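Aim 2 progress update. The chain analyzed this quarter is reproduced below.
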Amino acid sequence: MPMVGKKKFSYTKAGKKKAKAYAKKTGKKMKSKGKILMPYSKYSSKQKRLAAVAPPRKKITRADLMALKKKKKNAKKKYSK
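Predicted structure tokens:
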């Protein structure tokens, strides 16, 4: 979410444009909260195990979730036979 100071703007192109214009007008920097990642050191033990499933091993990514889904599917096939 684009932010200038404490004022929030929408995710749309128009919102981003307004945020840039407002930042230029006020002289403040525009920040985006959408891409902030939690540092690995603050992950819980379950989150660390999840992150270690697929590379990159220090981030929770879509690849980790897909690998778990695949493991689950294979486990169901194994027990259904």
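The first helix runs from residue 13 to 26. The chain has a mean pLDDT of 87. These observations will guide the mutagenesis experiments scheduled for the next reporting period.
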